[in-house]
Structure formats: C-alpha cells, structure tokens
C-alpha cells in the first residue's frame, strides 16, 4: 500500500553543488602543492625504501664480514662465514617485516 501512495520525487543534483565540489577539490590540491604536503607521501615512501635496502645490505654485509673475521682468527673457514651470513639475512628480513607492519603516522 505504501508503494501506491505519492511521495517526494528525488531531487536532481544541482549543477552549482557539483561546480563547488570541483572548485574545493582544486583549491585543496593547489594548497597542498603550495605548502609542500603533496610531496610528503612520496618522500616518506622513498625514505622507507632506502631504509629497507639498508637493512638488507647491512645485515648481509655485517654478518658476512664478522663471520669472515672470526673464521680467520679461529680457523673454521667457511663455517662461521656461512652461519653469520644467514643470521644476518634472517635478522634483516625480521627488521624489514617489522618496518613494513608499523602503522604510518
């Protein structure tokens, strides 16, 4: 029965509101560019990528270097080099996973 009763027709979207929304969006975009906030996301991602790369390279090189030095002193070549290299890689991946699961601010 409620379907047969006359009701209000939905209003058509006003062109002025659409124009206002578009101008607001444009003004916010220009303000973000002017204040430098538009590049903040790109800079943050660049820094995060560099940090991940540094963790990976640092873990591998650090583990290999320490293992090589200990192998030279203890005469256990190449076992400590291999063990510490793999420990460095595991540590680097653990740090990368920890970095990637942090909430961005």
List keywords for this structure.
105 residues; ATPase_put; transmembrane helix; Atp1_alphaprobac; 3 helices; ATP synthase protein I; membrane; mainly alpha; elongated
Overview of the structural elements:
Belongs to the bacterial AtpI family. One of its GO terms (cellular component) is proton-transporting ATP synthase complex. The protein has three helices and no strands. The model has no long low-confidence stretch (mean pLDDT 85). The relative contact order is 0.09. It has 105 residues and is mostly helical.
Helix amount, in percent? over 70%
Instruction: Estimate the strand proportion.
Output: under 5%
Cα-to-Cα separation, first versus last residue: 53 Å
Biggest beta sheet summary: none
Q: Characterize the overall form.
A: elongated
Q: Could you give the order of the helices and strands?
A: HHH
Poorly predicted spans: none
Which structural class should the secondary elements be placed in? mainly alpha
Provide a count of the helices. 3
């Amino acid at each position: 029965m409620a379907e047969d009763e006359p009701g209000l027709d939905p209003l058509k979207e006003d062109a002025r509101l659409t124009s206002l929304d578009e101008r607001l969006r444009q003004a916010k975009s220009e303000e973000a560019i002017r204040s430098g906030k538009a590049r903040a996301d790109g800079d943050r991602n660049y820094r995060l990528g560099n940090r991940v790369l540094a963790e990976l390279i640092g873990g591998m090189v650090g583990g290999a270097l320490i293992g090589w030095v200990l192998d030279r002193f203890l005469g256990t070549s190449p076992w400590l080099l291999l063990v510490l290299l793999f420990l460095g890689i595991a540590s680097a991946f653990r740090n990368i996973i920890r970095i990637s699961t942090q909430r961005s601010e």
